[in-house]
Amino acid sequence: MSEAVTRIQVGGTAGTDPYEVLVGRQLLGELGGLIGEKAQRVAIVHPEALAETGDALRADLAEQGYEVVAVQVPNAEEAKTAEVAAYCWKALGQSGFTRTDVIVGVGGGATTDLAGFVAATWLRGVRWIAIPTTVLAMVDAAVGGKTGINTAEGKNLVGAFHPPAGVLCDLAALDSLPVNDYVSGLAEVIKAGFIADPVILDLIESDAEAARTPAGPHTAELIERSIRVKADVVSSDLKESGLREILNYGHTLGHAIEKNERYKWRHGAAVSVGMHFAAELGRLAGRLDDATADRHRTILEAVGLPLHYRHDQWPKLLETMKVDKKSRGNLLRFIVLDGLAKPTVLEGPDPAVLLAAYGEVGQ
Ligand SMILES: NC(=O)c1ccc[n+]([C@@H]2O[C@H](COP(=O)([O-])OP(=O)(O)OC[C@H]3O[C@@H](n4cnc5c(N)ncnc54)[C@H](O)[C@@H]3O)[C@@H](O)[C@H]2O)c1
Ligand SMILES: O=C(O)C(=O)C[C@@H](O)[C@H](O)[C@H](O)COP(=O)(O)O
Ligand SMILES: [Zn+2]
Fold first, then answer.
1. Which of 100, 231, 330, 360 is the most exposed place for a label (fewest CB within 10 A)?
2. Is 112 marked as binding a ligand?
3. Based on the domain organization, do 33 and 145 belong to the same domain?
4. Can you give the pLDDT at residue 12?
5. DSSP state of 110
6. Which pTM does this prediction carry?
């Protein structure tokens, strides 16, 4: 695929407003149009790591005549807390932020989740725009309108569905991303490959080492394909009444690991272990063929993602998984594969099968 700007539409069905995800370079010229003429104030929410980007955006928007409120938040998961959300609300309140004003979230998935949540809750919902700067945020977090924060009890337990007005994925942002964060984002790319678009897996396997950097030959195509998978799903099921659950592949155990690590692990790394677990669960439940299950190990390992977690933590992880958002009452529910690109729900698996699947993951 070329480096020209690609536009992917999301929503516009079932009463939802459509918006576009743009993928390319030098996209900031698009921001003014997305903010619109009604806004007087723009709040830029960005992490510490992107202080310079925040400053540059502030100067640019101020030059365009907006009153700019810059809200710097902590890096990574430390931003997804009630305290940081309250700090953002205070900044908005002190600036006189009204319903016609606009929030811009610039950063990784943690920042866009927080910025979207602040937008969903301020005055019961204001317009927001996402400028994702990690692979993970481009292909997943910034698209689809799931916004939220963590609590000590679990991942993303507080949140709202509040889609952005637009998403600008400037591939140049990826050049400054540490390799571990780049690779962590590949977990969601690989997820999209297993649940819906196996070409993604072929492209990564063709040169897994190159896939670990933005200079790889397939970067733009991998990102665009993954966005299309997400866009297709959320366009038909914004509020997760059914189909959208497939995007949770690998997340039931992944989120439990994140909580167990007090949110110090990167989301993508935890989801990688979670997908390994889901593959073994699918295999042991008699759903998934050996070749596809084994492919999880080889591809995740080839890009440098983890497959294993502490074996002695199973009882705690199981307790946490019981309050996963997909659970219904006491019924544990997992996304597994019936085959490549055939995601399905496995309800109430036999505890012995669960334990055996974890036996492949625990170390
Ligand atoms: N809402 C959703 O649908 C959805 C989907 C997937 C993941 N998520 C959430 O996304 C979060 C993970 O996002 P992530 O993997 O992007 O991690 P992240 O947001 O924690 O970012 C990782 C680190 O990279 C820094 N950073 C961001 N962009 C940078 C850049 N261009 N150059 C240098 N440093 C940069 C960040 O400040 C942070 O320190 C999790 O909280 C996860 O729950 C949400
Ligand atoms: O968009 C979705 O739906 C997803 O499940 C995508 C996941 O990658 C993402 O991590 C999401 O935030 C998880 O949602 P949650 O509802 O399980 O918290
Ligand atoms: Zn995820």
1. 330
2. yes
3. yes
4. 86
5. H
6. 0.98
Pairwise CA distance, residues 160 & 259, whole Å: 20
DSSP characters over 237-290: -TT-SSGGGGGGTTHHHHHHHHHHTTT-S-HHHHHHHHHHHHHHHHHHTT-S-H
* Residue range(s) defining the domain that contains residue 147: 6-176
Rounded average pLDDT over 25-43 = 95
Cβ(240) to ligand 1 under 6 A? Answer: no
* β 6-10/19-24 pair status: antiparallel
Question: Average of pLDDT values for 205-215?
Answer: 98
CATH number, domain with residue 169: 3.40.50.1970
- Say which CATH number the domain at 238 has: 1.20.1090.10
- Say whether both 152 and 19 belong to one domain: yes
pLDDT at 2: 43
For residue 336, give Cα distances in angstroms to 103, 139, 247, 286.
37, 21, 11, 11
Strand 19-24 to 166-170 pairing: parallel
In a domain, 1, yes or no: no
Same domain, 201 and 340: yes
Q: Which residue has the CA at smallest separation from atom 6 of ligand 2?
A: 247
Residue 99: half-sphere exposure toward Cβ, Cα within 13 Å: 3
Q: Judge contact between 30 and 3, C-beta under 8 A.
A: no
Place of tokens 């309140």: 93
Same structural domain, 251 and 128: no
What is the tens place of the pLDDT at every residue in 112-168? 999 999 999 999 999 999 999 999 999 999 999 999 999 999 999 999 999 999 999
